[in-house]
Amino acid sequence: MNHRINRRDFLKLAGLASLGMVVPPSVRAASSRLQTEKKNVLIVVFDALSAYNISLYGYQRDTMPNLARLAKRATVFHNHYAGGNYTTPGTASLLTGTLPWTHRAIRFNDGVKDEFAGKSIFHAFDDYYRIGYSHNTLVNTLFKQFINDLNEYVPQEEFFLVNDGLIRNIFGNDEDTATVGWARAVKRTDGYSYSLFLSLLYEKYRDSKVADTASLYPYGLPNVNNDNFFVLDQSIDALGVRLAEIPRPFMGYFHFLPPHYPYKPHKDFAGAFSGDSFKPLSKPDDLFTEGRSDEFLNKWRIPYDEFILDLDHQFARLFDKLETAGILDDTWLVFTSDHGELFERGIWTHSTAALYQPVVRVPLLIFEPGVQTGRDVHQATSALDLMPTLLHLTGHPTPDWAEGTILPPYAPSVTDPADKGIMAVQARYNDPSFPITEASVMLVQDNYKLVYYTGYEELGQDTERALLFDIESDPEELNELSQAKRETASEMTNIVRKRLEESNKPYM
Amino acid sequence: MCALPLHIWTIILAFRDFDWVTARTNSWDAAGVVSYGLLFALFESVVVFAVLASIGLLASAKWDEKRRIALLSSLVVILSLWSMFNQAYFINEWGVPAWLASLVVATGRPLVALYALAFGPVFITVALPAFFILRSEKFYKGVQEGIERLSLLMLLYFFFDAAALINIIVRNL
Questions:
Q1: Do A181 and B36 touch (CB under 8 A)?
Q2: Looking at CA atoms only, how far is residue B82 from chain A in angstroms?
């Protein structure tokens, strides 16, 4: 059964937060156990959170002190990779357990190909109560494809301070296009809109609604697409409350926008790193450089790091709420991201063909129900492995479409996912119905990482290019080894070419 | 008459967006975005008309109805043109000339100076035609004739509005 709670219900639930806190955790935990022995699963995704910028993974700025503290109680994966380089392919890989060239959500705001609408993590947990929320529009496009396998789809605007709910309600059968039409008509993007006068009235209305909250955010309010403002505190509070109420066992997927651009930390964190002594490593411009100077990149890195500091605080709040409510006693909690962010080699953000570590290496922490001790996994792992792992941990079989494997500490036999190679794919300039001809493919095997580029204009006369790095001895990817280690580069390139060819076969 | 500039601006920008939306989804959705834009332009026209009608009722009875219509219509057209100019400034990324920028800065109160600079021309272009419509019979007749000719263009946006409404109804069935 599919149903969505309305705004009033949700706010009513949020209002019960304090009541929830006065019930002793032991009572709530016991009540949960009585309901079921099956453990819940909760996946918390922070968008565009690069492992490179997290202090737990060695970053010099102390961006996530709370995560470092909580990590002592978690399995920490130190070399975990996203399936893609931006939200659409990265999230689709997380949710389907397949690579972008398989699920085909490769272009901006694409959905997965039709047959994958019934092949998601939500479908695999069909005996669970499944709930999903995301600030990010691109994730909501995917949710809408998986809607038949979601018991509760919390609409994106539920946590916006001002939202377009009225337009969505009026044009319910065509809400996406109607919302775009509305946005283009009244929301002045870059100073202009279709409307000459209504846009001015709309802005007055919007600003009056967020005036009090805006003063807490010196760099401006966090937002989606310019004026869909939100504050993470509110989303976290409502999530904490909702999880205490929904039927057990549940499988929840919550995808929050921070620290994705625009970087808008709360005033408690804004300015935390400006003027500090940290000097990021200067790296040579890449073939895909956007011509950004180090000064420019370092300037933008600061609010990004401060936004991470903000979300670190919010994640700790969520963790405390869940613990106090006894939910963590019977829940597998996952902390991860869909892709990273780049501030080097003349490139900013993640809309790039270049697949350097900051774009593809993301955090993964798994908190086991009721466990207080931690462990570290240094083998390379993939976002594709998360779905089979969580299914295995909750007594489900691995679905036949999954391309990942069960993660090392939990696998029944000793296997190393890196044996088969960890891959990530960037193919946003291709039509998903046709063979992929312009792409970047990353392959990590043992201590080597190969990035294979094909079909890009930037390659000039060459039709392809492969870069090889020893990421164990050279984690900053400064020494390119494709010439020095020709045999390794050639072997890995052949693997990538073969996999690309195989993935293209159904579309030839 | 008040609907004309609002519709023209929407049509210009919505068709300018057509390729952008098509590239991200498809031309059917792009046509949908244009249709919703026109629907909201129609709504905006009704709002502007309601405001004008209210002002018209408050205006002195010593001016006849046609003169009041001519006055208010020309006000809408002039303000719309200024609003278009304002948006075109951002679309075309025009910059403030260096000499003007330094002049504004030199006043010591740049924001006030900028508002004053903007208000001056807008006030003059609104006040002068209003004055002549009320005082000069020749000017008034000229404006009236202009309004009648421009009103013929209504056929154009009526056609677009009708097509947009049909499209929206079909999309929402």
A1: yes
A2: 9
At A431, give phi and psi (nearest 5°).
Answer: -75, 125
Instruction: Strands of A82-135 (E only): list them.
Output: 129-134
A300, A343 Cβ separation under 8 angstroms: yes
Q: Which of A374, A299, A297 is nearest to A335 (CA)?
A: A374
Q: Shortest CB distance from A197 goes to which of B17, B39, B83?
A: B83
The pLDDT tens digits for A395-407 are 999 999 999 999 9
A8 pLDDT higher than 60: no
**Taking CB atoms and an 8 Å cutoff, what residues of chain B touch A190?**
90-91
pLDDT tens, position by position, A42-86: 999 999 999 999 999 999 999 999 999 999 999 999 999 999 999
**Is there a contact between A186 and B43 if contact means CB atoms under 8 Å apart?**
no
Q: Is A460 exposed, middle or buried (0-12, 13-18, 19+ CB in 10 A)?
A: exposed
Rg (CA), chain B: 20
Chain B nearest-CA distance from A493, in A, is 32
> pTM to 2 decimals?
0.81
Q: In chain A, what residues touch B43 (CB-CB under 8 Å)?
A: 198
Query: Tokens for A338?
Result: 């869909």
d(CA A184, CA A225): 11
Which has the higher per-residue pLDDT, A125 or B70?
A: A125
Closest-CA distance, A117 to chain B, in angstroms, reads 18
From chain B residues 84-113, the ones with a CB under 8 A of any chain A CB are 84, 86-91
Q: Say if CB A40 and CB A327 are below 8 A apart.
A: yes
* Beta carbons of B165 and B41 less than 8 angstroms apart: no
Looking at the partner chain, which of A176, A182, A190 has a beta carbon nearest the beta carbon of B40? A182
**pLDDT tens-place string over residues B60-105:** 777 788 888 888 889 999 999 999 999 999 888 888 888 888 888 8
Lateral strand order in the sheet of A40-46: A152-153, A129-134, A250-256, A40-46, A331-336, A364-367, A75-81, A375-382
Instruction: State how far the Cα of A341 lies from the Cα of A349, in Å rounded to an integer.
Output: 5
B122-138 mean pLDDT: 91
Q: Which of A177, A190, A192 sits opposite B171 (nearest CB)?
A: A177
Give buried/exposed letters for B78-112 (b at 16+ CB in 10 A, else e): bbbebbbeebeeeeeeeeeeeeeeeebeeeeeeee
Q: Average pLDDT of A356-380?
A: 96
Q: What is the model's pLDDT at position A344?
A: 97
Q: Which amino acid, residue A307? A: F
**Cis bond leading into A259, ω under 30°?**
yes
Query: CB neighbours of A183 closer than 8 A, spacing ≥ 6?
Result: A164, A189, A225
- Quick one: which H or E segment has residue A425? strand A422-426
Cβ distance A181 to B32 less than 8 Å, yes or no, reads yes
Please give the CATH number for the structural domain made up of A7-161+221-420: 3.40.720.10
Q: Which of A176, A185, A192 lies closest to B40 in CB terms?
A: A185
Closest alpha carbon to A112 in A94, A85, A128, A125? A94
Structure confidence by residue, pLDDT tens digits, A83-114: 999 999 999 999 999 999 999 999 988 899 99
**What are the structural domain ranges in chain A?**
7-161+221-420, 434-508
**Helix locations, A97-188, DSSP H:** 100-103, 121-124, 137-145, 165-170, 175-186
- Please answer whether residues A43 and A385 qualify as being in contact, where contact means their C-beta atoms are separated by less than 8 angstroms: no
Residue tagged 């399995």 (tokens)? A75
Q: Where are the domains of chain B?
A: 3-171
